[in-house]
Amino acid sequence: MSPVSNQTWRNWAGNQQVRPYRVTTPRNAGEVAAAVRAAAEEGRTVRMTGTGHSFTGAAVAEGVLLRPSALTAVRSVDTATGLVTVEAGLPMHRLNRLLDEHGLALANMGDIQEQTVAGAIQTATHGTGRDAAGLVSQIAALELVLADGTTVTCSRDERPDLFDAARAGLGALGVVTAVTWRTVPAFLLRAREEPMKWDEVLSRVDEFDEANEHFEFYWFPHTEGCLTKRNNRVEGPAEPLSKFKYWMDDQFLSNTVFGVINRLTHAVPATTPFVNGISAKALGARTYTDTSYKVFTSPRTVRFKEQEYAIPREELVPALREIRAQFAKRDWRISFPIEVRLLPPEDAWLSMAHGRRTAFVAVHVYNRDAHEDYFCGVEDILTALGGRPHWGKLHTRDAAYLEKTYPKFADFRALRDELDPERRFANPYTSRVFGD
Fold first, then answer.
1. Looking at residue 91, what DSSP letter applies?
2. CA–CA gap between residue 287 and residue 308 (Å, rounded)
3. Buried-most residue among 247, 344, 371, 410 (CB within 10 A)?
4. How many Cβ atoms from other residues are within 10 Å of residue 324's Cβ?
5. Is the dihedral of CA 286, 291, 297, 301 positive or negative?
6. Contact by Cβ (8 Å): 399, 434
7. Contact 93, 299 (CB under 8 A)
8. Are 332 and 374 in contact (CB under 8 A)?
9. What is the DSSP secondary structure assignment for residue 45, as one 8-state letter?
């Protein structure tokens, strides 16, 4: 039977696509439940997509595709407790503005804010932090529609196993319809960005980690150049970048010019080391103070593909040295910097930082460039250290590997067998990583 839908869904990077059987846009949890029951009657799978910022097939919906664009209500804001409940399709950038209007904020977050709230948590999106962990650690409760069409709420007190499993559940346990966030009072961050040499950064990474609330750095392959970022809370006053400085640095240089660079290196790969050298030397130090989410996040318009692995924190420096050694041995021409972030342990079962202090190593390529050899080479290094792949970023791991790296993996699969024995929420990606 040919599909009813003539719509082709594609992710942001353009490397995943599907033509679902049917597309629907539910307006509330009741309509999500009705869509799940209808899919069950037809024997079809059902998944809700976000904004397509996963590079894996996590959001691919072959059967019924639920669009979250009408599921964006703000259900409650309690400034006394900091508990804020919003529906699953609300974009992170709208959540950030909403919280700021009420004098609230997320304690930590990643560097983009285009995802839906449900999409961001289901793939365990994270930032960098010494004390404050990722998004899944800032959730107080979840509302989900299960495979039998019932709507349930879970928290640390109510169905705690489901809560711990579903916070980073890849949509495999149910369709998230609402998220209750545990927020903090709004705060300012003082951002200090400074170029440094490779050897200095690696020799001081422990110092920077201990001395800063949020530390990360980027290394430009084929060069000695790194960019360090240190963000810490301050009382104020706010001293944001000027409109011109923001446009010049974050929009024109980091996006427009960077896009031109990647089109050049795509056409002539041999220019990559030379171009990266210029980019690394062109970086200047800057310091500014602004609302937390404006410091955490940056615009990203150059499309790319990404792989990210979470490794034990103590393995970071040896891993980076081995990755760099591979550049001298292999014919890699990589225009994108390698990103390094840090996170404290988390307790969500499938958080990449579950149970251990974690370093994240992310590698990228321009979305029109081949990624396989580079990503697989880095993956070999990081999996040898017990690395856990980011659920939303490209990797080749399957359940046989993942069950060795996640202490609660078997518990997650057992709960999935109980809640979704017919695999109503499955797709090819979840089948690979969970072993169907």
1. B
2. 28
3. 371
4. 15
5. negative
6. yes
7. no
8. yes
9. -
Q: Could you tell me the two tokens for 329?
A: 């041995």
Full DSSP string of 137-161: GGEEEEEEE-TTS-EEEEESSSSHH
**Alpha helix ranges (H) inside 223-348:** 243-246, 258-267, 272-282, 292-296, 316-329
Which residues sit opposite 22 in a β-bridge? 64
CB hemisphere CA count around 115 (13 angstroms): 23
Q: Which residue, 41, 11, 55, is CA-closest to 364?
A: 55
Pull the structure tokens for residue 15: 């490397």
From the CA atom positions of the chain, what is the Rg in Å? Answer: 21
What pLDDT was estimated at residue 236? 83
For the chain, give the number of residues: 436
pLDDT (tens digit per residue) in 318-351: 999 999 999 999 989 999 999 999 999 999 999 9
Tens digit of each residue's pLDDT (9 = 90 or more) over 371-380: 999 999 999 9
Tell the burial category of 152 from Cβ atoms under 10 Å away from its Cβ (0-12, 13-18, 19+). Answer: middle
Q: Residue 273 is encoded by which pair of tokens?
A: 């080391």
Q: Could you identify the residue written with the tokens 């994270």?
A: 126
Q: List the one residue out of 47, 44, 58, 62 whose CA is nearest residue 15.
A: 58
- Identity of the residue numbered 106: L
Quote the pTM value.
Answer: 0.94
pLDDT of residue 272: 87
Do residues 336 and 364 touch, judged by C-beta distance below 8 A? yes
How far is residue 394's CA from residue 28's CA, in Å, rounded to a whole number?
32
- How does pLDDT run across 142-179, given as a tens digit for each residue? 999 999 999 999 999 999 999 999 999 999 999 999 99
Of 133-147, 197-211, 243-257, the one with minimum mean pLDDT is: 243-257
Among 219, 405, 430, 391, which Cα is nearest to 308's?
391
Cα dihedral 404, 408, 409, 410 in deg (nearest 10): 100
The residue whose two tokens read 């057992």 is: 414
Q: What is the pLDDT of residue 264?
A: 84
From CA 400, how far away is CA 239, in angstroms rounded?
50
pLDDT category, 14, cuts 50, 70, 90? Answer: very high
Under 8 Å CB-to-CB from 29, ≥6 apart: which residues? 143, 145, 151, 177, 178
**pLDDT computed for residue 2 by the predictor:** 44
Per-residue DSSP letter, 369: S
The pair phi, psi for residue 44, each rounded to 5°, is: -110, 155
